[in-house]
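Form 7-S
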Amino acid sequence: MRPIVCATRGGQVSRRTQKRAIVLAKERDAELIFLCVVDPTFAGPVNESLAAALKDELKRLGRSLLSIAQTRAREQGVVTQAVTRCGPVWQNIEEYVREVDADTLVIGSPRTESTSQAFSPGNVHRFAETMLQSTDVEIVVVT
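Output:
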């Protein structure tokens, strides 16, 4: 069976998303990969040394969030992998899903509008539709 990829970033929506991905992995006896994409460009233009430090800190935070997700999965008897990527969120998710030939992508959508352009409900659903059209990956959107 091809793996399930769960794109996660922390917070309440991510907890629901992780829970759904863990249940799917158990039901399907599938490999579960938690993916966290950090994009330091949200901070706007910064000098080179600050950009490198910001990228490093975001990656460290991403690894910590993934470690928590893996603990949740282990408590349910699911063994996982954790991957951190850096750059544009949707592009990195799509590239990674293709790279591992995922069967399913589980992503979360906030119930209300967000200040993050990548994670507003409308954008998540547009991304899911685009992914569905361009790949044979099942998309599960958790609200």
